[in-house]
């Protein structure tokens, strides 16, 4: 791989923002013998202009392959854009035949034949995807794509107060779209949680759908109150948005877990409901979500990621939860500045999502970072 070129800007109108970005990209050197891919993230203020933005970028840059999404928040190296019209673009150079755009998949199923053939021949095991949260089959589509590749996906659910537009060549929606990379494109990826466990793991010994009946053979709510401490147990209304359920992922060598909301408490029957279907025998632990826990884990993740790099990072893509960013780390782009502080001036773009994709699962309250080396 050769150069990665980053540009980002905010303003009042889509065309002037595009022109500011294009002026900076004009300084990017064109490397002969490489194919270009444009990663583009557009704030939802400009969602209705996405088609015009992509058309202008294609004409002015000569790059035909664009992938990205709109978002209620977007980001670039050291910068977060919320509640304002903005665009972030990363132009990437890859050797010929190193990537393929993934057309929108609206239902579970096999990859299109041409993509499947390419993926086999180029040993594709990695992709960046964006998904429409309105599609009820999203979990199955993501899992099926990862299984088809026998590989790893990163990405997020599109977030928008308007049109839920994705970009994969053209502006699209309604399913999962993105880009797949050949096996010889070097990447490393890692996930950071916003939560910190507050108690030991418990075994679910009785449950029904998403309702916890017994944990370790005891009434679920009694165990929950014990784990969260006397102060919170006296006023359970205070746990909303602070205490969550963590479902450890079996066989994870990084101690990974899925965070799910508490959705109901029945004090009369000692029941606790969470935002995930569960089965007897699963393990669960309770965790707290706060800025201190999130920053600690973000720094840990970045430190681990740096140790795994075989070469300096040339560019990256970051997917973070909408509940993170300014809602957790404070204003002034603090989350992205932590990444910049730890990694240096790596060209990076990304999206604040309605849910984050890592491997073949959908997470919440996480940050998923991928670096190209």
List keywords for this structure.
Elongation Factor Tu (Ef-tu), domain 3, 2 domains, 9-stranded antiparallel sheet, 6-stranded mixed sheet, 27 strands, 23% helix
Note the topology.
Elements: E1 4-10, H1 14-25, E2 35-43, H2 50-61, E3 66-71, E4 73-76, E5 79-82, E6 86-94, E7 99-105, H3 113-121, E8 126-131, H4 138-149, E9 152-157, E10 166-168, E11 170-172, E12 176-181, E13 187-193, E14 195-197, E15 202-208, E16 211-215, E17 218-219, H5 220-228, H6 230-233, E18 243-248, E19 257-260, E20 262-266, E21 271-274, E22 283-289, H7 291-308, E23 315-321, H8 334-343, E24 348-353, E25 356-359, E26 361-363, E27 366-372
Parallel strand pairs: 2-3, 8-9, 23-24
Antiparallel strand pairs: 1-6, 2-6, 3-10, 4-5, 4-24, 7-12, 8-12, 9-25, 10-11, 13-27, 14-22, 15-16, 15-22, 16-17, 16-21, 18-19, 18-22, 20-21, 23-27, 25-26
Helix pairs in contact: 1-2, 7-8
Commentary on this structure:
The protein has 373 residues and is of the alpha+beta class. It has 2 domains: 4-186 and 310-372, no CATH class; 196-288, Beta Barrel (Elongation Factor Tu (Ef-tu), domain 3), CATH 2.40.30. Helix content is 23%, strand content 39%. Strands 14, 15, 16, 17, 18, 19, 20, 21 and 22 form a 9-stranded antiparallel β-sheet that branches. Helix 8 links the parallel strand 23 and strand 24 (348-353). The longest helix is centred in the C-terminal third of the chain and has 18 residues, at 291-308. It starts with a strand and ends with a strand. The model has no long low-confidence stretch (mean pLDDT 93).
């Amino acid at each position: 791989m050769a150069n990665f070129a980053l540009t980002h800007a905010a303003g009042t109108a889509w065309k002037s923002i595009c022109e500011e970005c294009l002026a900076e990209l004009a300084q990017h050197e064109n490397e002969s013998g490489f194919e270009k891919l444009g990663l583009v993230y557009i704030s939802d203020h400009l969602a209705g202009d996405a088609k015009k933005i992509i058309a202008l970028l294609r004409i002015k840059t000569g790059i035909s392959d664009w992938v990205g999404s709109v978002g209620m928040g977007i980001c670039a190296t050291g910068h977060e854009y919320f509640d304002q019209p903005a665009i972030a673009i990363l132009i990437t150079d890859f050797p010929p035949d190193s990537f393929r755009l993934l057309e929108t998949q609206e239902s579970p199923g096999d990859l299109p034949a041409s993509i499947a053939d390419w993926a086999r021949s180029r040993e594709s095991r990695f992709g960046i995807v964006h998904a429409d949260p309105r599609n009820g089959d999203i979990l199955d589509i993501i899992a099926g794509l990862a299984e088809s590749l026998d590989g790893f996906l990163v990405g997020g659910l599109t977030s928008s107060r308007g049109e839920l537009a994705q970009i994969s060549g053209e502006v699209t929606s309604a399913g999962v779209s993105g880009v797949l990379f050949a096996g010889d494109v070097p990447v490393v990826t890692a996930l950071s949680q916003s939560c910190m466990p507050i108690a030991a793991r418990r075994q679910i010994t009785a449950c029904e759908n998403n309702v916890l009946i017994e944990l370790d053979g005891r009434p679920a709510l009694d165990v929950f109150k014990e784990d969260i401490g006397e102060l919170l147990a006296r006023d359970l209304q205070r746990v909303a948005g602070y205490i969550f359920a963590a479902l450890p992922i079996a066989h994870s060598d990084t101690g990974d877990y899925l965070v799910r909301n508490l959705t109901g408490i029945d004090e009369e029957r000692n029941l606790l409901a969470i935002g995930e279907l569960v089965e007897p025998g699963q393990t669960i632990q309770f965790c707290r979500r706060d800025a201190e826990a999130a920053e600690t884990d973000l720094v840990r993740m970045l430190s681990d990621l740096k140790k795994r790099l075989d070469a300096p990072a040339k560019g990256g893509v970051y997917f973070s939860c909408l509940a993170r960013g300014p809602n957790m780390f404070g204003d002034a782009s603090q989350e992205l500045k932590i990444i910049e502080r730890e990694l240096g001036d790596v060209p990076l773009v990304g999206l604040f999502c309605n849910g984050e994709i890592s491997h073949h699962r959908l997470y919440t309250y996480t940050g998923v970072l991928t670096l190209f080396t």
